[in-house]
Write a structure and sequence with these properties.
The protein is of the alpha/beta class. It contains 14 helices and 17 strands. The strands form four sheets. It has a seven-stranded mixed beta sheet, with helices on both faces. A four-stranded mixed beta sheet has the order 1-2-3-15. It has a four-stranded antiparallel beta sheet with strand order 13-14-17-16. The relative contact order is 0.16.
Length: about 400
């Protein structure tokens, strides 16, 4: 059979139209640079939406993948495997957690977290304790359960009826949470840094107060660290950065550095409610995925890398502030580590996506968050010269946008 030449137009012919991808089709990546079908080069500030934490084709990942590919790929949960056991051991050694459940994505990790929270409450307090409280503008995945816990109604429209027992309150508003939390609440779910909602960090004071309220009401605190975790904040997980420890934590995205994997981390006490047969995943804990994720964890969880994230945050902020001094285009620059948001002023705020195309024309890949914020989630080991070059290209794109 002859292999058909594929182009961007092929997407419109054969793919379900849930996405509207850029016109460029990347075919090769190395470090923080990407090349498309036409041979054009781009500086990657998008990181596959905070996924490619070590950039493209990092040698340690290629080595781990190649070695494991020549051993064993998959066994299912009928048997365990060495890479999964090593990765789980390293995650528990490095965090508050004592137990790990592996999945294939952030949504699956969150699905497991939310189910476990309800099961723990059922086992220990009874079926009436089932309410999950989450925050407006939050994002926790696209399954029906996770999209319902997420605080963005636009993602639920057309898929109702949604699961019940879920309440939403404003983010960083402790009085709003106090007004609704009760003995019926089984869990409070939050992102330490709201990602899709606009790169909005929780204040340390707010997070600590949420922890205290959960303790008062025998509710579990669930941190969704799918986007903020694995070094992106400058600590291995953002909960370490803000000094608040959850009962359950979800991880994905950067955990695999581009290879699909998710993980739910928790304590012995809470994990006991996921007894034999109560939850599962055919591919979860896959040997190939776990081998790659182990190499990513080993590389990221080093002082030089984590310290570098904070240093590079300063470089991004300085460059964005310099651009803003010239063009007065940002209302606020916020974030933590290498998860940075630059909120646009009017009239650009309603059309943030236009900046993705403008950036691509100048050879830099960026993201948006919400409808009004440019998002930067590059490799954690991006060279400083790539930051400078990418920002120079971004400035050219902004200059063109402003002059229109």
């Amino acid at each position: 059979m002859t292999t058909k030449q594929v182009t961007r137009s092929t997407f419109d012919e054969v793919m379900v139209p849930t996405y509207s991808p850029s016109q460029i089709v990347p075919v090769r990546g190395e470090g923080s640079r990407v090349w498309d079908q036409e041979g054009r080069e781009y500086v990657d500030f998008a990181g596959g939406i905070a996924v490619t934490a070590l950039g493209h084709c990092h040698p340690v990942m290629v080595k781990a993948l190649t070695e494991q590919a020549n051993k064993i790929w998959h066994l299912s949960n009928v048997m365990t495997n060495e890479p999964a056991l090593r990765l789980a051991s390293k995650l528990t050694d490095a965090t508050f957690a004592e137990r790990v459940f592996f999945a294939n994505s952030g949504a699956e990790a969150n699905e497991a977290a939310f189910k476990l929270a309800r099961k723990y409450a059922y086992d220990n307090f009874g079926p009436e304790k089932n309410e999950i409280i989450a925050f407006t503008n939050s994002f926790h995945g696209r399954t029906l359960f996770t999209v319902s816990v997420g605080g963005q109604p636009k993602y639920r429209i057309g898929f109702e009826p949604a699961p019940g027992g879920i309440t939403h309150v404003p983010f960083n508003d402790i009085e709003a949470l106090k007004a609704v939390i009760s003995e019926r609440t089984c869990a409070v779910v939050m992102e330490p840094i709201q990602g899709e909602g606009g790169i909005l960090p929780a204040t340390a004071e707010f997070a600590k107060a949420v922890r205290e309220l959960c303790d008062q009401h025998n509710a579990l605190l669930v941190f969704d660290e799918v986007q903020s975790g694995m070094g992106r904040s400058g600590s291995l997980f953002a909960y370490m950065e803000i000094g608040v420890t959850p009962d359950i934590l979800s991880s994905a995205k950067s955990l695999g550095g581009g290879f699909p994997i998710g993980a739910m981390l928790t304590t012995n006490k809470v994990a006991a409610s996921f007894g034999f047969g109560s939850h599962g995943s055919t591919y979860g804990g896959n040997a190939l995925a776990c081998a790659v994720a182990e190499s990513v964890l080993d590389e990221i969880n080093r002082p030089s890398v984590l310290e570098g994230v904070k240093r590079k945050h300063a470089l991004f902020r300085e460059a964005l502030e310099a651009i803003n001094a010239k063009y007065h285009i940002f209302k606020e620059i916020r974030g933590m580590g290498l998860l940075i948001g630059a909120e646009l002023v009017e009239p650009y705020a309603s059309n943030a996506k236009a900046f993705i195309g403008a950036g691509a024309e100048e050879g830099v890949m960026i993201l948006t968050a919400s409808t009004n914020t440019l998002r930067f989630a590059p490799s954690l080991v991006i060279p400083e010269e790539d930051i400078k070059e990418g920002m120079a290209r971004l400035e050219k794109a902004i200059a063109k946008m402003v002059s229109q």
